[in-house]
Task: inverse folding
């Protein structure tokens, strides 16, 4: 019978059977491992591509923001100059 006292004394616990270590893994195990590894790879690829698209969007947005800001600021500056002329 198993108990923590047995573990403290350093006795080995015997299994009711000997596991087979020289046996090839079953086909279902190979298929499952391939499937899980494929999902991990696809998830990693998705994270990588999401990061690349995000970086590209930020890079393209910087130029658009600068163009918008320059156009907006030039109109605002023109408005201030005209307002000072008439006040």
Result:
């Amino acid at each position: 019978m198993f108990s923590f006292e047995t573990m403290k004394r350093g006795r080995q616990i015997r299994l009711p059977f000997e596991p087979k270590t020289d046996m090839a893994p079953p086909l279902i195990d190979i298929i499952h491992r391939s499937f899980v590894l494929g999902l991990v790879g696809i998830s990693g690829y998705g994270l990588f591509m999401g990061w690349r698209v995000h970086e590209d969007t930020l890079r393209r947005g910087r130029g658009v923001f600068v163009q918008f800001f320059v156009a907006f600021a030039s109109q605002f500056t023109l408005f201030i100059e005209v307002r000072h002329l008439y006040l």
The chain has a mean pLDDT of 76. The helical segments are 4-8, 27-86.
